[in-house]
Amino acid sequence: IPVTEAATTKPAKTLPDAQTVTGVKHWNDHLFSFRVTRPASLRFRSGEFVMIGLPGDNGKPILRAYSIASPNWDDELEFYSIKVPDGPLTSKLQHIKEGDEIILRPKPVGTLVLDALLPGKRLWFLATGTGLAPFASLMRDPETYERYEQVVMMHTCRTADELNYGRELVENLRNDPLLSELYGDDFANRLLYYPTTTREESPLMGRITDNLTSGKVLEDLGLPPVSPETDRAMICGSLAFNVDVKAVLEGFGLREGANSEPKEFVVEKAFVGEGI
Ligand code: FAD
Ligand code: A2P
Predict the structure, then answer these.
(1) Which of 210, 44, 46, 177 is CA-nearest to residue 123?
(2) How many angstroms is it from 271 CA to the middle of ligand 1?
(3) Which residues form the FAD-binding FR-type domain (predicted)?
(4) N or C: which terminus of the chain has fewer CB atoms within 10 Å of its end residue's CB?
């Protein structure tokens, strides 16, 4: 019996490197997160980024760097995104729905990986805005807690609603069966969370740079001074934020490292700003 064409042909993917959207959540008018299928061959280290995008009007893909927000054990990929009103990609990407396809180039890279740091006791994640994304991955990776006794997540945004994605993620982690099995009641002391706002009243306020230099965060969390013997850090925010935090950490005696030369801290831009 002749085999029909339909039975032998797999459904054609409409895009090269296409992945299917499995869920979308809008956090406010300028932030959303979404999940997509994971290519079977994609291996990445928690904290890395990939290029994702959509076809442009001329058929040429519009691709942008995105940190993978999900941990490397997850069978789907999660992203946390800004909506730039006139942004070439995000003005379209913000409308994606479950079942839609996006382009995902399966070549993960980046400096915010555990291998780029020397061993230590305490690991600081320092982020503003969507700079939280790589840490959303690293906070959910058990290897982070295998390597470090304590993780401190400092996240700063202008307003309180911009903190919600990270806040919910940390709350879910605190109820995570795998992590509580590994660390029990002690997990709240393994992952410390310090969310602050700068332009709206909230329980904790102030820029990360100010809270580090004044020692307020140390006082509030009951931590000893930051030192190159015990403390490691990863920075992800705007260029101005990264430059200023780097100077603060260098003031504490920490040095910038890289994949090829692990040291006490690493930095990555959360986006490429105007004119850069
Ligand atoms: P673009 O033309 O790319 O940007 C327009 C302007 O919007 C920029 O000049 C800048 O001023 C501003 N802008 C862009 N991205 C942001 C942002 N995230 N937060 C605040 N302002 C921004 N974006 C994410 O939303 N999530 C991520 O996980 C993420 N990871 C990144 C990782 C790396 C290494 C880099 C370099 C960038 C990352 N970005 C991320 C930024 C992303 O690549 C795009 O710039 C963003 O999606 C906007 O795309 P666009 O085409 O709409 O506008
Ligand atoms: P602030 O409100 O005091 O400017 P932005 O949206 O401009 O990227 O800022 C996101 C958050 O990062 C805001 O809370 C902002 O504080 C803070 N921020 C911006 N630039 C710096 C910097 N150079 N150092 C420390 N924090 C910064």
Answers:
(1) 46
(2) 4
(3) 14-115
(4) N
CATH at 49: 2.40.30.10
The complex's ipTM works out to 0.99
* Dihedral of the alpha carbons of 26, 31, 34, 40, in degrees to the nearest 10: 180
Q: Which of 92, 109, 126 is the last residue of a domain?
A: 109
Q: Does the pLDDT value for residue 1 go beyond 90?
A: no
Span from the CA of 138 to the centroid of ligand 2 (angstroms): 22
The pLDDT tens digits for 203-262 are: 999 999 999 999 999 999 999 999 999 999 999 999 999 999 999 999 999 999 999 999
Determine the distance separating the centroid of ligand 2 and the alpha carbon of 20, expressed in angstroms: 34
Question: Which residue has 């999900």 as its token pair?
Answer: 70
Within 45-176, where are the H helices? 90-93, 133-139, 142-147, 164-174
Is the CB of 83 inside a 6 Å radius of any atom of ligand 1? no
Q: Are 265 and 117 in contact (CB under 8 A)?
A: yes
Span from the CA of 100 to the centroid of ligand 2 (angstroms): 34
The answer to whether residue 3 scores a pLDDT higher than 70 is no
- For ligand 2, whether the C-beta of 129 sits within 6 Å is yes
* Ligand 2 touching residue 257 (CB < 6 A): no
Tell whether 121 and 88 lie within a shared domain: no
Query: Domain boundary at 109, 135, 159, which?
Result: 109
pTM of this structure: 0.94
Ligand 2 pocket check: which of 83, 156, 201 to mutate, most ligand atoms within 8 Å of Cβ? 156
Q: How many domains does the chain have?
A: 2
State if residue 111 touches ligand 2 by the CB under 6 angstroms criterion.
Answer: no
The pLDDT of residue 273: 77
Q: Check whether residue 50 and residue 146 sit in a common domain.
A: no
Residue 80: give the domain boundaries. 18-109
